[in-house]
Every structure is written in C-alpha cells, then in structure tokens.
Amino acid sequence: MDSVGNIIVYFVVAIAMVVFSFKAVTSGKILRSATYLLFVLLGTAVFYFQLGYQFLGAVQIAVYAGGIMVLFVFAILLTHKPNDTTGRLESHRKSLGVIVSVASGVLLLFAIFYMPLLHGASLTECLSAGNEITMSDIGEAFTGSDRFQYLLPFEAVSVLLLACIIGGVTVARKR
C-alpha cells in the first residue's frame, strides 16, 4: 500500500465508510439504513483487498455483504411494511446516548491497546518492542482457548446472535 493511488483509494473509501456509517445510524427509513450498512461492509472488503488479503475480502463480500445483509433485509420485510409512513422516533436522552457512546469508544481503545493480546503482552508493548505481529498470531489469539486467547467470548457472541435470530423469528411469527 505504498503507491499514491492506493493511498487515495484508502482515504476515499474511509471517508465513504464514515459517511455511510453515520447515515446508517441516523436514517429514518430502515431499508435505507440496511443499504448504507451494505456500503460500509463493501468498504471493509476493499480494505482487505488493498492489504492483500483476497480471501478475507471475498469472505467479507460473500458472508457479510451477501448473506448477512439478505438476512437483515428479510427480517426487516418480515417485521415492517415497506411503505410504512410512521413518524421518526424522538428521544429525549440524546445527550446520555452521546456520553455512553464516547465512554464506550474510550473503553474500546483502551482494550485494544492495553489488554493482553499475544503471549500476555499488549499491543502497545508488542509494537514498542519492535515485534512483528502476523495474521497467524492474530488468528491464534482469537481462536485459541489458552490464557489471553478469545475463543470463549467469540462463541458467546455467536450464541447471543443465534438467540437474537430466534427471537426475531418468534416476533415475526406472532404478527
């Protein structure tokens, strides 16, 4: 990713992803939000392709941009009418939402940089020591079951997502 063209493509895609992420969250129409989310997922695939990870880019397009988005749109159409003209939901707790979002972002950054990642060392310790972190190391950290590896949280999230899908189907059946 050294050429000027790659850098320009990176910034164009990054700006587009930020704009589409914001639009996905703030759009009043749920199908438009899902479409904006599709563009964000495709932008992530472009980043993978730029980094030379063609397999991850293809998986991103096939699984997330393809399969998950079809599932989202299917669930949306099961639970809402496409031409529903209900008003926008207004919340009086926007400031609380902003505070919680900023706090969550700070905690996420703290976790990324200071939680143990590889062999008990944090990301900042690995980078300051000059250690090269390979995709194999990251994959082993995420899918391992030893200390400082994250297979159990990964599986817990997958069970939570499965429970959400079952709940969505149950709600859709009762309508």
Would you kindly provide a written description of the structure presented here, covering whatever features stand out?
The chain is mostly helical and 175 residues long. 75% of the residues lie in helices and 3% in strands. It has seven helices and two strands. Strands 1-2 form a two-stranded antiparallel sheet. A hairpin with a 2-residue loop joins strand 1 (116-118) and strand 2 (121-122).
What topology emerges from the helices and strands here?
Layout: H1 4-26, H2 30-51, H3 54-79, H4 94-114, E1 116-118, E2 121-122, H5 123-128, H6 135-143, H7 151-174
Q: What string, H for helix and E for strand, traces the elements in order?
A: HHHHEEHHH
- What proportion of the residues is helical, as a percent range? over 70%
> What composes the largest sheet?
2 strands, antiparallel
Number of helices: 7
